[in-house]
């Protein structure tokens, strides 16, 4: 996976926007104004990329036990966020699945009215 693939994959999802709310380095993808994927552009340039992804708390623990590349979310809630290191023991397909899960977790947390109005 490269940054362009990540960018295109995330922006292809319904109601997704990209922002830099913290600084010029941290790219944040949001669905309906809620974060689901964060990454450092500098880390991609340095060859050590990672993503912060929202995750169901039970699944988060399972992933951390199964993969070295998955750790508690850096600067995030350790219960519901994982940091996923790219180019380690996860395939691109598995990473895309984790991004999908993160997106779905955020959408699931929206009100029914909001999901309906956005067509989610």
TrEMBL record:
Q: Does the keyword Glycoprotein apply?
A: no
Coiled coil ranges: none
Q: Which UniProt keywords apply?
A: DNA-binding
Q: Domain of life, per the record? A: Bacteria
Quote one Gene Ontology molecular function term: DNA binding
Q: Which Pfam families match?
A: YjbR
Is-annotated flag, keyword DNA-binding?
yes
Q: Known InterPro entries for this protein?
A: YjbR, YjbR-like_sf, YjbR/MT2646/Rv2570-like
Name the record gives this protein: Predicted DNA-binding protein, MmcQ/YjbR family
């Amino acid at each position: 996976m490269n940054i362009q693939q990540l960018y295109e994959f995330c922006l292809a999802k319904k109601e997704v926007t990209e922002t830099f709310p913290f600084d010029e380095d941290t790219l944040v993808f949001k669905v309906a104004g809620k974060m689901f994927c964060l990454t450092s552009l500098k880390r991609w340039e340095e060859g050590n990329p990672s993503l912060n992804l929202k995750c169901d708390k039970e699944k988060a623990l399972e992933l951390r036990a199964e993969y070295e590349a998955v750790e508690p979310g850096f600067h995030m809630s350790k219960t519901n966020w994982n940091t996923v290191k790219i180019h380690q023991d996860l395939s691109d397909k598995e990473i895309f699945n984790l991004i999908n899960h993160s997106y779905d977790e955020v959408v699931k947390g929206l009100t029914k009215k909001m999901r309906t109005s956005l067509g989610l």
